[in-house]
């Protein structure tokens, strides 16, 4: 991908910081709404999508809560709360609609370059977990967004759905699984490239790779963005009327440098991750699903174990994990000083409170870091009983930074999710947090537009409805609209087998 250098005296309507799925999504959305906007994207690496958006740096699950058990907690009375699952699925449907619009408009030629149909499954063992999964299925099966889900405890059916998981499994333990054929595998790296190609193919867009944004300062009604060339070390300033900081884990330090009050008191807790990747084509060919289990006691939600079919550059692969770890880096290609440099007087109290109140998480991370390869293989064999070490290799995933916020009662809380931070005057926004982030990039960026471009929404409303037909409505409230939308996106995104 060719980087277009920016003149030192450039002024832009929009500056995007970071070369991942979030910046690319916002850029394309804004260009579709107002083609005359001038936009520049600055990425510190030599290509886009090399951090968390990269295909091998995440599991590629199109997070729609079809299989993720942590989105459906069970209460003390045995009732399953599906509200978060509904919201996550609803958000993913917005992303699907946006991608469908791009495909239908001819802006994306082949959706299969980044999106492939892969069944989503939940798999549990033990009587208590089987009871939970039955309750979860009963709570979801009649909801319009989850129509088509199946449940079974029959070993023959389970063997048909996931032969690799059932092969060689000892009897005597209750087993259950749910299966949804409408799940997807998403290569967010390939999607990011397609989106940046859309931007690069039109006027008014400058792509600046190998350029690190080192500072943000308010200047009149906009911002002065300080940029340093990663290869030649030269520095320059550009002006922006609006800045979006979508730099993954690198977003927090930049928001802190911006000086906006909304970023005060926020801290970050970095969590690294690893996967086991299968190297044996025969084993890869025997599994065609994303199979999610239940998280261990004390494990963070992002560490739910899962066995995933991946489709990267047209080739199927197989991942298991994640195995959590700890690093003080905020980016995979970041600095070991990222965490200590982020500690400020306004957030140290919240960070210390989180450290105090999350000892089970700390213990879990220590155990994960200390794992041997045999420990990791033991966890894999819960899903693949006959797994051999020689067929799997360890890879490092992208770095995640969870949000720490002040809390009046506890002093500080650790949040697992994504959060948009916007300045009071709407001229700057940034995204913090992790999963289900990439899957919900379109609705998250839509919220940025609603917050920061509120004065233009009336004139953009017709285009927004064209981009996202359900705009202003909820599919979960209208079964007929939900069915029509699902059929349209399935056909447009070439997901019919």
TrEMBL record:
Cofactors (names): FAD
Family: Belongs to the MQO family.
Name by which UniProt lists this protein: Probable malate:quinone oxidoreductase
Domain of life: Bacteria
InterPro entries associated with the record: FAD/NAD-bd_sf, MQO
Enzyme Commission code: 1.1.5.4
UniProt lineage: Bacteria, Pseudomonadati, Pseudomonadota, Alphaproteobacteria, Acetobacterales
GO MF entries: (S)-2-hydroxyglutarate dehydrogenase activity; L-malate dehydrogenase (quinone) activity
UniProt-listed SUPFAM superfamilies: FAD/NAD(P)-binding domain
PANTHER family reported for this sequence: L-2-HYDROXYGLUTARATE DEHYDROGENASE, MITOCHONDRIAL (PTHR43104:SF2)
TM regions (residue ranges): none
Pfam families linked to this entry: Mqo (PF06039)
Record field: catalytic activity: (S)-malate + a quinone = a quinol + oxaloacetate
Keywords of the record: FAD, Flavoprotein, Oxidoreductase, Tricarboxylic acid cycle
Functional pathway: Carbohydrate metabolism; tricarboxylic acid cycle; oxaloacetate from (S)-malate (quinone route): step 1/1
Biological processes, Gene Ontology terms: tricarboxylic acid cycle
